[in-house]
Amino acid sequence: MKKLSLISLGILASLQVANAQTISSKKWADLFSYNNVLAMKEDNGKIVAAAESGVFYYTVSTGEITKLSKANGLHEVKISAFDYNPQNKIGLVGYQNGSLDVIAPDGVTYVVDIPIATGYNGSKKINHISITGDLAVISVGYGVSIFDLKKKEFKDSAFFLSGGIYEASNEATIFGNKVFSVTNSGLKTHEMNTTFPVFTTWVNEMAGSFKHIDSEGVLSFSSANLAYLYNGGSPVALSQSFTNVHDLVVNNNNIVVTDLSRVYTFNTNGTFSGNVTFGEECNTATTVGSSVYGGTILSGIKNEGGNSFRPDGPYLNYAYKISLYGENQILVSTGGREARFNTPIINTKNPGFYYFDGAGWIHPSYFKGNSTIFNVLDVVADPVNQNDIFFTNYTTSAGRGVYKMKYNAGSKDFTFTKNYNLGTNDLSARRAVGLTFDDSNNLFVTIAFSSDGTAYGPFTAVGAYDRGTDDFLIRNTTQSFGVAQKALFHDGLLWIPTPRVNNFIAYDAKNTVNTSDDKDYILTQANGFATTSGGTLSVAIDKSGDAWIGGDVGLRVLPNAASAVKTPANVTVEPIIIEQNGLGEELFRDGQILQIEVDAGDHKWVSVDGGGVYYLSADGQQTIKHFTKENSPLPTNSITDIKVDKKTGKVYFVSYDGIVTYQGDVADVTSDFGNVLVYPNPVVYSNFKGKVTIKGLAEVTNIRIADTAGNVVHSAVARGGYYEWDLNNQRGKRVASGIYFVLMTNEDGSDKATAKIAVVN
């Protein structure tokens, strides 16, 4: 296929479409929000809609909803434009990075010409897509490009370059044999002929700043407050004026103008038909028969009766930390910090937290329209009464501190109970960070920038929740630079990373909320943290009792952590050294370790800022998997939280661009066998060329694989609850077609299991 090269002179040199590998599988699922509907198209009683992170299909007559996202076919998130042709059933998705997905009955094709093109350094975001027949006109910051949907390749491009400055096409459409584009300086047109790429041959039909355009039988376009009907002569303004036009759509019967929360319809000769309000702001709207449907910013698709339709998901995609508890219940915080984990990141939509009750997602009404600024860094359920929810509000404004709320299953909503100011009214002091329960269900909060008792001070502190007084008892640690992360409770201690200072805290609360006898132990750079690191960010304790501590730079391990940390003068934290090309290399030497999680098999999941997620063997010596946004459904390469449901093996990856899950192979690993499963089985080479997975194993499993004659073709010792066989025999050659028996015993031989694998080469 041809390659598209964007040359500064605006001359089309060559063209290309690139196909990417399939990055999704049945193991992945998304927990994306589908509330923010950007574009819609009607297809014989079905609405095809694009949201920020996926496309969904809503059948009006049955209410059926299906979705397509990066977890099951698309290649990106952050959708910025979309159109769909009901005649050929082809949709085109445009992304903020300039890439495209062609959704066709025969599959999804990834197009990366615009992101990789040279010669144009401006924004490559896809502003708008308009499909006419088998052609689509794509509006970008440089102008417009024509895309052939059948061939899945670019045709001509026109670069709106004048005086050395590019002008963006806000939107464009094909009408007749012409392309019509609206820009901030006017309505521009050109026939699709040999001079199309030459900007000086384009005609400025009407001066002005125009934002939206569409055509189907007739052509209409709009400025911020007026819409026009174009019939080949002079454009004629429609009879209504508007406040702020968000979109304009032309279909067979109507011109539909979306103006904030109100939608106006006109027939195709420009006569006003009526208007509908949806009670909230809309991005777009369309008609199905005589009914109007709005594409809202916060409620998915809405009909005139105010009913909402979209795939279930959280309120927004923005997420920071996640808590798993109860029967498939989830709490998601939406806060964040920057400036070395100091300055709050304030989300203007003020979402607070999201809750999944095991059946559906709920967003507390408490946060909607609330004037308090919420930057929720953590949210947890009380094990004593799981309807009581605590969350931290890390801000330097009124309303900071820890909050308690109560969930009402009947109303599926939360009510405010109390705001704890942590003993001070100083808005800059005692900023609540993370919440942790110990084995006795005592609640602790880590606190940054705690007071020294007289004024705002630089201490890291711990607050213990006293259920009797319904308040927090605060104790400053000896860490004199006021920083903290969420604590991990393990072996009777609270393990607290300290961003902004190259230390680490182990805090002993003595299994009580009485803080008078508490003690803290501080590890410093002298204990072996990387000299270039600016702090510690994450921690996990594995089955051996070793602490894996993620730093601003690098990863360190503290063996026998619970006992070793109590004598910090004698402690050295060690890097993991792996062999690379015959030389020792420090694992993640320059990486910022955002999160570490240990699964039931003692394997480590490690999130590296900008580097995706690594799945490591128990000792860290082997990388079993490495997921990035390029090779997996991860929405970004910076995952802010990882949680493993050890009962099921499901792994949750959390980010500011949304949440995805991966069904891992390790769950409930014990010294005995679980439910042993082999997949794929049978293994047909023409369909599958990877390794065969055997899961449900014991912590340590002796494996022998034999053919039907009893000859052992492969043997191994599996650790961590699962094993992957590459179908090679002991000589490194692929085994022949046939039936193979898997004979397994646990470490001490007290439990056995068998399985069969059918191989078809």
From TrEMBL:
Gene3D superfamilies listed in its UniProt record: 2.60.40.4070, YVTN repeat-like/Quinoprotein amine dehydrogenase
Lineage start: Bacteria, Pseudomonadati, Bacteroidota, Flavobacteriia, Flavobacteriales
Domain PorZ N-terminal beta-propeller, chain residue ranges per copy: 49-193
Span of the signal peptide: 1-20
Name listed for the protein in its UniProt record: Two-component regulator propeller domain-containing protein
This protein's UniProt keywords: Signal
The keyword Thylakoid is annotated on this UniProt entry: no
SUPFAM superfamilies named in the record: NHL repeat (SSF101898)
Organism from which the protein derives: Chryseobacterium ginsengisoli
Presence of keyword Lipid biosynthesis: no
